[in-house]
Amino acid sequence: MPKAPMQHVCSFCKRLVTIKNQYDMPIFDPQSGFAICKNCIEDIYHFLEAHEQETAEHEKKDFTDALATSLEKTKPHVVKEYLDKYIINQDHAKKILSVAVYNHYKRMKYGYEHSDGTEIEKSNVIMLGPSGCGKTALLSHLSQLLDIPFAVTDASSLTEAGFVGADVEVAVRNLYYAADKDIDRTEHGIIYLDEFDKIARKSGENNSITADPGHEGTQQALLKMLEGSIVEFTARGQRKHPEAPTIKVNTQNILFIVGGAFVGIDKIIEKRLQKSEASIGFGAKVEGENDKPKFDDLLRQVTPQDLMKYGIIPEIIGRLPVICTLETLDEDALLRILTEPVNAPVRQYQKLLEMDNVELEFDDAALRAVAKEAIKRKTGARSLKGIIEDVMLDIMFDIPRSDEPRIVRITEDCITKGAQPEIRPANKQDTPKKTKKTAAKTEE
């Protein structure tokens, strides 16, 4: 006698279901009798799908409204005024970055509000400038102003897939965590690849016959990411293997900014200019050492061809259409950096000693000596705080021994000869004479 088919009532629709296989009643608990038929599961799935679509449309509208507000706050002149508070000089670079960020917001807003088939391409930026000129500082302060996530990744640590090191997807993963694991915000952020010149092809414009895992291969791996593609990566702390759960991020609306010192590119530019201006005979122009163009003048004339000769592959250059150059900081610029910005090194130490009831003074000659020492070290503004730290170490160690009000004066000899700073008690009769620059900034 054939066995009668099993039947059960769906706990949702109360329909009697004839169970021929496990898919007729996908969810069934024999102990409690709870069951859900396949029709109800399909209906629930459609409800969830419709709800997600409706939620996405609401989120899209909210994001578009937020972009309109952000556009007001990120107009080029507003961004530049903000950067002027923290960064000395580099006006040309500030303008380029201000326009790039503003256009990035406008591009996203246009994409959300229009569907006429016109696609505005990304204007990714490549920054060139000597060490310590303010590339990373510019973008660090820019990120504080923006409402979108911003992440910095060291490009020199990246390698192509299959080699020991960090894959290029790490850059997007860093942005994902900077956005507090919000994929929607991640897909509209900004990624800065620092030390980008370190992944230049070792053989320049010529192909290398040996493996180059940290250079050309890395550039090839970055291509699709820069243009816009779906990037998959694992969460931090998880090993990358086929069965590992991955997070997917679309990089189509992510703005990429790459930067580096590009040491030696001035020689490539100079060689190109000499070829174009070369002449022989009695009418040839004879140049002396003083007639040679300076580094900043050469850097401003950089072309995509120069970058290719340096070792950046043509495909990458095509995806970095905006070239931004920064100038070398001279002694006067370094002097201003010490005192003028909101977070100037001198101000930082004055605030630290104020907490110990001590007033800190810097002679003008001392500040100029710090600037000269930074130029000798050839590290730009990066070494300013380190030079002052060396001088201030003993003072900051001994000052907390007493709570008495005092005045500490840093002279030129403290910087150049290692002399001890002058310390005297502070009282009404002995009003300290502040330097013009330090006093003016303190009164603000």
Task: Write a concise keyword list for the protein shown above.
Helicase, Ruva Protein, domain 3; Rossmann fold; five-stranded parallel β-sheet; 444 residues; alpha/beta
Question: What is the topological layout?
Answer:
Elements: E1 6-9, E2 16-19, E3 27-28, E4 35-36, H1 38-73, H2 76-84, H3 91-113, E5 125-128, H4 135-145, E6 150-154, H5 169-178, H6 183-186, E7 190-194, H7 216-227, E8 230-233, E9 247-250, E10 255-260, H8 265-276, H9 295-299, H10 304-310, H11 314-318, E11 322-325, H12 331-339, H13 345-354, E12 358-362, H14 364-377, H15 384-398, E13 406-410, H16 412-416, E14 422-425, H17 436-443
Parallel strand pairs: 5-10, 5-11, 6-7, 7-10, 12-13
Antiparallel strand pairs: 1-2, 3-4, 8-9, 13-14
Helix pairs in contact: 1-3, 2-3, 8-10, 12-14
For the record, the CATH class of the largest domain is Alpha Beta
What is the CATH third-level topology name of the largest domain? Rossmann fold
Helix content: 40-55%
Kindly report the spatial arrangement of strands forming the biggest sheet.
Answer: 6-7-10-5-11
Major beta-sheet overview: 5 strands, parallel
Overall tally of domains: 3
Number of DSSP helical runs: 17
What is the global morphology?
elongated
Question: Taking all residues together, what is the mean pLDDT?
Answer: 82
Query: What is the end-to-end distance?
Result: 99 Å
Flag low-confidence runs. 206-211, 431-444
Classification by helices and strands: alpha/beta
Tell me the name of the CATH homologous superfamily of the largest domain.
P-loop containing nucleotide triphosphate hydrolases
Q: CATH architecture of the largest domain, please?
A: 3-Layer(aba) Sandwich
Percent of residues in β-strands: 5-15%
Find the count of extended strands (DSSP E, 2+ residues). 14
Biased composition (Basic residues): 434-444
Keywords: ATP-binding, Chaperone, Hydrolase, Nucleotide-binding, Protease, Zinc
Domain AAA+ ATPase: 121-348
Organism: Schwartzia succinivorans DSM 10502
